[in-house]
Amino acid sequence: MTEIDRIDAAVAAIQAAAPGFRPRLGIVLGSGLDACAEAITDPVDISYADIPGFPKPAVDSHAGRLRLGSLGGVPVAMLRGRAHAYEGHPMADVVRPVRTLARLGCNAVVLTNAAGSLREEVGPGRLMAIADHINWSGLNPLTGPNLDALGARFIDMTTAYDPGLRGHLAAAAEGIGLDLAEGVYFWYPGPSFETPAEIRAFRTLGADAVGMSTVPECIALRHMGVKVAGISTITNLAAGMGAGAALDHADVMTTGAGMAMDLARLLTAFAGIAADDL
Ligand code: HPA
Questions:
Q1: Which of 61, 117, 213, 232 is catalytic?
Q2: How far is the CA of 261 from the centre of ligand 1 (A)?
Q3: What is the pTM of this model?
Q4: Is 198 one of the catalytic residues?
């Protein structure tokens, strides 16, 4: 079975579970943000276990379900839970769910995540639109023979995070009175958090936030010509900042959960504004 066959098998299973439904916008929910799914109306849930080729997410707060429905009047497909490279999943498995959303018809995908901030003035509780990313991991989901049916061998990443969608995010935030930061996301594959020295190095390199996801999905979606928007929920100051407290996954989850409603409002307003572009 080729990778294209695997993706198409997933598409077929989803279409069989929701005949005639064609999503235009995809959303990937990051750690701790599952409550966002409540914002979707007329929901249909499909367990990842019932979609062939979908990896089972191990992070406990990840629901492991695809939710189809409507958000801000737009038909959406929301991935509630993602697989991370640090779980040992091959890169093809990490990006198969977003590739599936693209093949289902999504022209744009919003990638969300929990992240640590490298800027004191953008503290826990803030949302940050991703303007660009830095991939220093040495990993890339496009490594290996090119999947010509999906896209070209060499892809442009100049506007990886679509400027038009970023404008809609800013307008949506302003419309609901939400203070949205904007910055560069640095992918650190984890699962250990960074050292303070690494954080200082990443800041020098131009990073504003750091996290363990999103970049592989962004690259795979740009390969397919899908527009990408990214939102980081800032759950903590990065290692060595602030009072220098130890980083704790449980704190990341708790802070993230408290931001899920802000994110839901932002996504709903965004979908309404972006509808004509999707
Ligand atoms: N580092 C990496 N990933 C994260 C962090 C962090 O500080 N916070 C939430 N996810």
A1: 213
A2: 20
A3: 0.96
A4: no
